[in-house]
């Protein structure tokens, strides 16, 4: 599993390094997933993103890269974990609840972009039977 997946903090570091590969003074900002530290991403996807960043920064006009990670599906289901902690630090009770998070689509981030290359794999929707 270790070679197949990349930890999120490692992915962020790889993204920054890839964006600075052509020009080390390139400014890089990453938004989204900032509070998630234990997740993992398929290493193949991380490699594709690194390659895309090197491609993007090969344009000499680009001096800053803004990376924003958003859900591709605008409505995502999440679990809220609420833990009751005693004075000694031990957990006494936990309550789990569902939460549906609605996010703005990618088009909201692309309103002022001159050129868009969509390299995402297409979603395939099954036909109703």
Radius of gyration: 19 Å
Which overall shape is indicated by the principal axes computed on the Cα atoms? Answer: extended
Strand content: 25-35%
| Series of H and E elements | EHEEHEEE
Mean pLDDT figure: 86
Cα-to-Cα separation, first versus last residue? 37 Å
Give the secondary structure arrangement, pairings included.
Layout: E1 5-7, H1 8-19, E2 27-31, E3 40-42, H2 43-57, E4 64-68, E5 75-85, E6 91-102
Parallel strand pairs: 2-4
Antiparallel strand pairs: 1-3, 5-6
Helix pairs in contact: 1-2
Please tell me about this protein's structure.
With 129 residues, the protein is an alpha+beta fold. Helix 1 (8-19) packs parallel to helix 2 (43-57). The strands form three sheets. The chain has a two-stranded antiparallel sheet. Strands 2-4 form a two-stranded parallel ribbon. Strands 5-6 form a two-stranded antiparallel sheet. The two termini are 37 Å apart. It is built from two helices and six strands. It has helices at 8-19, 43-57; strands at residues 5-7, 27-31, 40-42, 64-68, 75-85, 91-102.
